[in-house]
Structure formats: C-alpha cells, structure tokens
Design a protein that fits this description.
Strand content: 15-25%
Order of helices and strands: HEHEHEHEHEEEH
Helix content: 25-40%
Strand order of the largest sheet: 3-2-1-4-5-7-6
CATH class: Alpha Beta
Structural class: alpha/beta
Radius of gyration: 16 Å
CATH superfamily: Vaccinia Virus protein VP39
Number of domains: 1
Distance between the termini: 30 Å
C-alpha cells in the first residue's frame, strides 16, 4: 500500500492502480527523493508537474508538503481515475483545489500548454518500454516550461541509460536505489560558467546541495 509520507496529509493511504499497468514509486524511494527535494527547498509554494503520473503519488505528496498547484498528467483511463481519487483526497484535506488531473498523453499536453505555463518541479516516471528517443522529445518540449531554478526528476530502471539532456537542461545529480535510478536536472543557462572551473559559491543552490550530499 502506498501512502502520503509527510505534510498536511502525512500517513494517509493512497489508492493504487490495480494490475501491472503502472510501476508505483516505492515508499523507500519516495522518502529518499523528497528528503533531497526538501534540501533543495523547491517544494513549498511550487507549481508541480507530474508526467506519466500513474496513481499520482509523487504529485499528491508534493501537494501535502506545501506545493501551491500540482498537475497530474496520465493518459490511461483507469490510472487517471485513480489519480482523480487521490487528488480529491488531498484537495479535501487542504480545503482547496491544489491538485488537478489531466487525462492526456504527455507530448500533446506539453504542446497545448500556454507560453506562460511554467513549473518549478517536474517528475517524469515513464513506463520502462518507452523508447529513449520518445523521452528525449518530452524533455525537449519541457524546457520552455521550466521556471528559473526549476528541478526535473527522471525516474528510470537502474539498467536504463542516462537520459539524453537537451540544450535547455543539465544534469546535476543522480541516485540509485536498488532497481530504481533517479536523475536530477535543472535549466541550463547558456552563458553560465563551467561549474567544474569555479568555487561552489558560483553554483546554483540545487547543485550546491546535491554536490554536498554526494
């Protein structure tokens, strides 16, 4: 059984998607992930995007921990129905509509997003069969919708290769938890100084924290 780990609805059980259609993030991995995100200080007040949301566990956890708005994107009818139940749960606890469910494939959702739609924290937990080139296309589309200082988290099998990062993203950390690997990226500033050639004070806040926890 998955649950909300912390925040306003901490300890509350979540509805899971029945069958093997989705691959929910384990509580162990989720706890480690959100511990790092708390250290990056990117959750409170954030606008969060959970792509390939499955049950919506990551997005709902963000809502419980203080995110201002959360968008769950899931194309499967059964899974999006579970997302809605979990969204209704956290919205009820918070007393406002913090979490919104979008039944859509990821690429069309990003294509339809307005130029002003910007997110501070993005989760991508695509199904393992998704081809790397398809993931590359999604990351490319995502770049124009990242707020300054945003953090992007890609969850993949530990046997999968590192995602291809488009020009607008740069990877600053990665972690392996058993069969799961998490990749952390942030918007790339073209004129930024090479972080390997400068002192830590010149790195972004997220990068500094990440390198300090290596």
């Amino acid at each position: 059984m998955t649950r909300i780990i912390a925040g306003a609805a901490g300890g509350t059980p979540l509805t899971a998607v029945p069958g093997s259609l989705t691959r929910p993030t384990t509580d162990r991995v989720k706890e480690a992930l959100f511990s790092r995100l708390d250290a990056f200080n990117v959750i409170t007040g954030a606008r969060v995007l959970d792509l390939y949301a499955g049950s919506g566990s990551l997005g709902v956890e963000s809502g419980s921990r203080g995110a201002t708005a959360v968008d769950l994107v899931e194309s499967d009818a059964k899974a999006s129905g579970v997302c809605q139940r979990n969204a209704d749960l956290i919205n009820g606890v918070l007393g406002r509509k913090a979490v919104t469910v979008h039944r859509s494939k990821v690429e069309p959702f990003l294509d339809r997003a307005d130029a002003g739609d910007m997110w501070d924290l993005v989760f991508l937990d695509p199904p393992y069969p998704l081809e790397e080139v398809a993931l590359q296309a999604v990351l490319q589309k995502l770049c124009s919708h990242l707020a300054p200082g945003a953090v992007v988290v890609v969850e993949r099998s530990s046997r999968s290769p590192e995602p291809w990062w488009p020009d607008g993203l740069t990877r600053f950390a990665e972690r392996k938890y058993g069969e799961t690997r998490l990749w952390f990226a942030e918007p790339f500033v073209p004129d930024a100084i090479d972080p390997d050639a400068v002192d830590g004070d010149d790195l972004s806040e997220a990068s500094q924290v990440a390198e300090g926890q290596q």
